[in-house]
Design a protein that fits this description.
Layout lengths: L5 H14 L11 H40 L4 H11 L5 H10 L1 H15 L1
Length: 117
């Protein structure tokens, strides 16, 4: 028995072209090119979801380091002092505190200095 699969094939192609919307040149119009480009885009999206976490952690570390040095202590001594003091705040919260609440961050640096020595 003959099976005509025109509707299924069209639906599959439309799905790929919809995903490739906004791509440059024939990447959004030609099915073959759009398939290759969207597959590559999906690979980059997967990779960059991992890299995003990495980049944010680096940014938080830089912000904490800058704020800690303003208060006269290095990043490693600050983090070590907090650990010894039993203050368990993650880097995201510390970086946020360093920017938006410098007074409380200064108190944390004093705690860290006391417990580091």
């Amino acid at each position: 028995m003959r099976v005509k699969r025109g509707t299924v094939a069209k639906k599959r192609r439309q799905k790929v072209l919809k995903r490739a919307k906004g791509f440059y040149s024939s990447g959004s119009r030609n099915f073959t090119v759009a398939k290759e480009m969207s597959d590559r885009a999906l690979c980059y999206a997967y990779r960059d979801r991992k890299n995003r976490k990495r980049e944010f952690r680096r940014l938080w570390n830089q912000r904490i380091n800058a704020a800690a040095r303003i208060n006269g202590i290095s990043y490693s001594k600050f983090m070590g002092g907090l650990k010894k003091a039993g203050i368990e705040l993650d880097r995201k919260v510390l970086a946020d505190m360093a920017i938006f609440n410098p007074a409380s961050f200064a108190e944390l640096t004093n705690h860290a200095k006391q417990h580091w020595a």
